[in-house]
Amino acid sequence: MIPIKLDIQGLYSYKEKQTIEFDKLTAAGLFGIFGAVGSGKSSILEAVLLALYGSTERLSDRGEKTSMVNLQSDQLLINFEFSSGRNNAKTYLARYAAKRNTKNFDDIKPAEHTFYEKTDGNWQPITARAEEIIGMRKEHFKQTVIIPQGKFREFIDQKPTDQAKMMKELFGLERFDLSFKTGILLKTVKEQKIRLETQLQGLEEITEEIFTEKQALFSVLKSQATEASLKLKTAEIEIRTQQNLRDKYLQLLKFRTERENLNIQLPEIEKQRQLHSEFITATTYLRPVWEQIRDTKSDFEKYKVSVIDCERFKIEFAKEVSDLEKEEEELKKKNQERPLRESKIRDLKKVIEIQKLETQREDVNSTLVKLSPAIETKKQTQKELETKIADLENQAEKVNTVDSTSLAQLLSSAKDWQHTTNQLNKVQLEAEEAKREAEEIQLKLNELKHRIPDVADSFETWVVLQKNSISNLEEQRDLLMQKQGLAAHVHLLHQGEACPLCGALEHPDPLDVDGGNELELKSHEIHEAKSLLEKTQVLASTQNELLYKLENHQRTLGAKNDEIHLLTQNFTALKTGLAHHGIDSQESLQAKISAIEHSSQARERLLKEVKTLRKNWEADRELITQSEKELQQAQLKLQSVQSNISSKKEEIRDMAFCKQFFTKEPDQIQVTIDKVEKDIEEALQLLEGKQRHLRDQRSKRDINLADLENFIRLREQSQAKLERLTSEFESLKVQHGFRDEEQLIRLFRHSIDAEKIAREIADFDRKRDIAESRIQELEAENGVADFQENAFQELVISFENLKTNAESYQKQVHLLDKEIQETTAKLAEKKILQADFAKLEIRESYLKELENMFRGSGFIKFVSSIYLKELCNTANVRFMKLCKNQLSLEIDDNNTFWVIDYLNGGKKRLLKTLSGGQTFQASLCLALALAEKVKALNQADQSFFFMDEGFGALDRNALRVVFETLKSLRHENRIVGIISHVEDLQQEIGVFANVELDPERGSQVSYSF
Predict the structure, then answer these.
(1) 799 Cα distance to chain centroid
(2) Secondary structure E strands in 518-567
(3) Is a pLDDT exceeding 70 seen at residue 935?
């Protein structure tokens, strides 16, 4: 995470908006933020934490957030722009905003906490939180990136379990929790093993002997199938020959039948042939003339009727045109009066405009009468407000000015008083609880020691004695089992015969063993001894656990006592600082704060009232100005209206006609105007309509006369053509032998498809010729006419029997071949399954070992210890330089930090025994090492480290060494920021921001560049 810019407004002492340009500060690699105590330096880190995680270091998340808003501000606003992600390639904006309740000053509304990501130059809202964007929780962020004031040594003061937990969360060590994964793998292996056992059980009957038998049977069946196949091929050749003869014989029968059917149809076909010939002659030579005669008769009748209609229309059009010409003349006379009537209408419209202007003049006069007194009244009110504002300002000056810095310090002291008191009570209760628990653990340890027998001085010794006793008892039991096994064969010994075990011929003292009672008693003793051993081991484990808890409680008790001492010192210092102000108790402190706040509220109330009155004065001033403008505009409008009235009266031409309308209402005059205008428009429209209708009727009359002449000419032409065609038709009938005209017309109207009949006749002739030709060819071919169907069917039956026999052999061969292939595959599968089963048994044994190793969180604790040791080694590179190789850091198996003192023979002592300056150096080196590991984890090209530390515990020489260390970090692509009030350090850092507390404006930020 690299900061870019931070905007602060309304947080603690930041009254006005201030911007910290981090991008300019971080460009130097090492920068500082300096200022006096209480100027607001640490509030910058508080603002970053608030913007990222929604909570601060000083105040709790609940109940105390209202105290973070500046007492003179209505809202709190923080905008923090930063880069994060891999190589810090993405830019984000964190925004935190909260406002006061306008009705209750002490009530702060719930804050708005949002995040944005810059995409293509625009801010896009996102749902991700700081934990996802930066990759760490607030607690880890305060220990690796930004270290607030007083929290610099928090990491080394953590309990070992908290340090291990931090390593786990920060570096993702939960990936080393392999117990669950191992359990899943072991379960999977067991399931696979069961599945393989089931599969192997299904393949128990598959053996090499069965495979050999099937191969022998396959050879016999294959030879039989080959012989049946040869017989089938011979029969197939014979049946194909007979089938060919049969097909030709069936064709011969088919063509004979077809020839007989065609001979039956021959008379009908001849009739069709005769009719088709006559129809073709009539339609080709006579029908076209006959159709022309019929069409010409129709045209003659049509032209005859048209001539009659045109003569009738000639008379009607002549009468209608005469009537329209008379009406047109009357309308022309009426429209000649139009200019005079329109002039009178224009005069009447002027009368209406004059009446409207008279109304406007009355309205303007009324406005002038109202505005003048109102303006005078408002000016008097202005003078009264000015007097009241001057009185209130004098009262505010008499009230004592409140020092906001003193008030802020007193409020901070009151919070520290309450916080220290609560913290001291809490730590004292925790110390008492730790002491009580330590005493209870000590009592339990004493009870355990009393259970150790006299023969042992500790549980470990007791366990060793128990194991030795069990070993002796097991040896005795094995000896008894051997004797019992030999005794089972005593009855086989006979004098003079060789012993089956040693071959001796003599048996002087045969073994005699009791029937097993002694062996059973010995086994019972072993079981009792093992039970006692398990109980002893449980007691030993309990003792170790209690000792570890006792040591932890003792360390906790020591830390709590140190914390009580430190809190007591802080409380004493706080009281000493407040004694200078005459404050000796928490009640007097609250009284002092209340008095200052009351004085501040009284002055603020007076100033607020003055501000309100000034706003009212300004508002009235604007109203007066506006009213004066309205008065001036009304006067100008009155002059304009009077001028327009005179002008309009001069424009009227016929005043004598218009005088009677000045007393009427504008609506009545408008009705008269509309009526006259409508009459003028209707007269004009009627004239245009009549003229248009007259033109249409004249055009129709001319067209009718032209049509009459044309139809007379066409009627005479049709009559001549009809006589000529009738003579031609009579001549053609005689020429082609058609004497009967009615029979000829029936032939014209006959529905014969000539082309279809011609195709049917041609098709009949073709089929008859083909059938005759094929019959002659087939009768001439050898064996076709003499074919016997019975002999062919017997041959077919014989062929089917041979085919069935051959297919049966082929099927048996195919099935047996398939069985042989399946057996081969199953034998191969069986070998693979047996090999896999053996591998699974080995894997199962390994996974059981791993399951025992990863049980619990022991492996994660082991890896966490490795990370802490690596962190310690990295920190030693800088720490040994800072302390001139006199000290180095070390961490034991319990994750406790130690110091190796090389000035005292390399002996170890706790890290807590270091001085304040040395502790600061160790904390700095560990924090830098932790930040370096986080940088490598996040794959960032740069890393940012910011600490709020006064450096007051360091002398001048140590301060110089620390500064040189911080400057060297620039060469490691690290950005380091420091908040401090130490002047020596400020002189060494060239790029810095300076924070000053202004009594009126709050904290102000300036820069060295």
Answers:
(1) 75
(2) none
(3) no
